[in-house]
Amino acid sequence: MGTVTQGKRAAHREDVEHRIIEALCSLIEGGMLWPDITIAEITSEAQITRTVFYIYFKDKSSVLLTLGTEVKEALLDITHDWGTSTMGPDVIRRDLKRYTEVQRKHARLTRALRDASHTTPEVHKFWKAIARDFIAPTTHRILKERAEGRAPDGPDAQMLAYCLILMSEKVAFEALHDGGPDFDAVLDTAHQIWLKMIYGI
């Protein structure tokens, strides 16, 4: 009997957490900017009380970090086979296309993360880590390309990865949110820079 009760409580908790997370997602995807979203807006959307909200989350930023994990995992999934598969210039284009698709799909959420990072240390740390977590696998990728003869020697691999990743993140975000040039044109130019810097072509 105790096991059944515990199971029901766990299911209820999971359901409420999901409703809160989905409520914030709905507000963000509906076009609300992060500074305008309040706990009252979230609880109204989730159809729960403020008291119930605080049982599950300490603040709205905690909910945002849970949502942000989905973006981070989707982006890092792009790198999952870099250590084992055959690379080459064509794969750079494929992976930048995948990066573009993830950025577009989660554009409003990444803007909320960026906006929240200005005022919330935990979100700031998370936001910075999204791009920086690409640096190690990109460094490994560059070294692998050089070792297997597909890329010539060049700048320090880690510094090159650092510059390429942060450049791509910055220009993609500007194109999506801050009045930058056409997003596709930006990614096409970024692709050419990656090819030039890694493969010399």
Describe the fold and architecture.
The chain is mostly helical and 201 residues long. The protein folds into 2 domains: 57 residues, Orthogonal Bundle (Arc Repressor Mutant, subunit A), CATH 1.10.10.60; 140 residues, Tetracycline Repressor, domain 2. The chain contains 10 helices and no strands. The longest helix is centred in the N-terminal third of the chain and has 28 residues. The radius of gyration is 20 Å and the shape is elongated.
What is the compact description of this entry?
By secondary structure, this protein is mostly helical. It contains 10 helices and no strands. Helix 1 packs across helix 4, helix 5 packs antiparallel against helix 10 and helix 6 crosses helix 7.
Task: From the alpha carbons, calculate the radius of gyration and give it in angstroms.
Answer: 20 Å
Portion in strands:
under 5%
Separation of termini?
68 Å
The major beta sheet can be summarized as: none
SSE class:
mainly alpha
Globular, elongated, flat, extended or rod-shaped: what is the shape? elongated
CATH topology of the largest domain: Tetracycline Repressor, domain 2
**Structural domain count:** 2
Counting DSSP E segments of at least 2 residues, the number of strands comes to: 0
What is the helix fraction of residues, given as a range? over 70%
Q: CATH architecture of the largest domain, please?
A: Orthogonal Bundle
Low-pLDDT parts are none
- Assigned CATH class of the largest domain: Mainly Alpha
